[in-house]
Amino acid sequence: MALANAQMYLFLVMISFMFVHSMANFNYGPWGSPGNWNKTNFPNGNNHPNATQTSNKFNVGGSENWRYGFDYMDWARKNGPFFVNDTLVFKYDPPNSNGGFPHSVYLLPNYWSFIKCDFRRAKRIANPNQGAGEGFEFVLKKTQPYFFACGEHGGIHCNNGTMKFVVMPLKRWPY
């Protein structure tokens, strides 16, 4: 019971963090009312790549692509917030005869499956060959948490915490 409570607390903290982090891009007026969103809330006046009113495309992992040993939770935190209709592009090498480990992309159904890397009810959205070339594209269609992980080799890349991440796309403000 204590473990379930701790996991629920962790889930709530994670969702709260994602919400607060996404709201950091907004200027607020007196008494917390929304002010003007000027897209310059980042160091050196740089605009966040997602500060537009249009959907954006993000290469998962940036130049590192979808590979073993990369911290995708950190990547998601640094590249967020994500919005409905943004596209995530998963690029990875197809299986080869040199013994390289293949990768895939699974969408896990809930937080518990994500934490435990339980793929029994997960949906494979990209097989090991779909990441080649321009990669596999996934559009964030709803305001809901999306739990992504690599499920190859019994989910070993997920179990060691490297090839998994969660995003919670937001609706765009109607400015």
Automatic annotation (TrEMBL):
PROSITE patterns membership: PHYTOCYANIN
TM spans (from-to): 6-24
MF (Gene Ontology): electron transfer activity
The Phytocyanin domain, residue ranges: 56-171
InterPro entries in the record: Cupredoxin, Phytocyanin_dom
UniProt keywords, alphabetically: Membrane, Transmembrane, Transmembrane helix
Taxonomy, superkingdom: Eukaryota
Name of the protein: Phytocyanin domain-containing protein
Organism: Capsicum annuum (Capsicum pepper)
